[in-house]
Design goal:
- The protein contains 3 helices and 9 strands.
- It is of the alpha+beta class.
- The strands form 2 sheets. It has a 5-stranded mixed β-sheet with strand order 2-9-8-4-6, with no helix packed on it.
- The radius of gyration is 51 Å and the shape is rod-shaped.
- About 5% of the residues have low confidence.
- It is found in: Endoplasmic reticulum membrane.
- InterPro entries: Ig-like_fold, MSP_dom, PapD-like_sf, VAP.
- This is VAMP associated protein B and C.
Length: 246
């Protein structure tokens, strides 16, 4: 009995391309889409498991959704004369409604329930023109990035739209510190005004007794002058009366 047709939609459909250089990990992305109304279990297998790392290599794709599978080729010595014989297979099956153990479902699956799609792998090295173009592009991007950084450094922080969380946090802390400093200066100013008022009140209170004493002295001096004047007047009157009697 023939196997059912694959229900998943693969992008790309037939070929995974890995573009060098291969001195570092090279990643290709495989998109799996489930257009059905059922959940679908899937597995990704390869003929060279030691050369690739696949994440995720199995799982469940919900109805009407999709998932991206990262296929990471490990570093190796590339030989342009050697053709790649590596292949991948995407195996799938409709998930049972009462599924609880995915591994158990795969073990108990019947051959007529399984669907699969195969993809081949190709390796490509960038051409010299491509390398030159990429180098120039990298230089352009680098110069653009440096100019953008210069512009941002010339702008005030409040006008910059590319601040990350760390810079925003530093700005907030600085604002908080400045607010605390302003509050501290206000309190010091208030204390200085209070001390100055207290000092003025003390000076006023100290000056008041002296003024009272001065007023009392003036009054006493005025009183003494009046008494003396009366005494002189009475003396003159007494002398006149004495002469008249005589």
């Amino acid at each position: 009995m023939a196997r059912p047709e694959q229900v998943l939609v693969l992008e790309p459909q037939h070929e995974l391309k890995f573009r060098g250089p291969f001195t570092d990990v090279v990643t290709a992305t495989l998109k799996l889409t489930n257009p059905t109304e059922r959940n679908v279990c899937f597995k990704v297998k390869t003929t060279a498991p030691r050369r690739y790392c696949v994440r995720p290599n199995s799982g469940i794709i919900d109805a009407g959704s999709s998932i991206n599978v990262s296929v990471m080729l490990q570093p190796f010595d590339y030989d342009p004369n050697e053709k790649s014989k590596h292949k991948f297979m995407v195996q799938s099956m409709l998930a049972p409604y009462d599924m609880t153990d995915m591994e158990g479902v795969w073990k108990e699956a019947k051959p007529e329930e399984l669907m699969d799609s195969k993809l081949r792998c190709t390796f490509e090295m960038p051409l010299e023109n491509d390398k030159t173009h990429e180098s120039e592009s990298n230089k352009t991007v680098s110069s653009s990035t440096s100019s953008v950084k210069t512009e941002h450094s010339a702008l005030p922080k409040s006008a910059s739209a590319s601040l990350d969380d760390g810079e925003v946090k530093k700005i907030m802390e600085e604002c908080k510190r400045l607010q605390m400093e302003v509050q501290r200066l206000r309190e010091e100013n208030k204390q200085i005004r209070e001390d100055d008022g207290l000092r003025k009140r003390k000076v006023t209170s100290m000056a008041t007794p002296h003024s009272a004493m001065a007023t009392s002295v003036v009054r006493d001096e005025g009183l003494s002058t009046r008494v003396l004047a009366f005494c002189v007047l009475f003396f003159v009157i007494g002398v006149i009366i004495g002469k008249l009697v005589l």
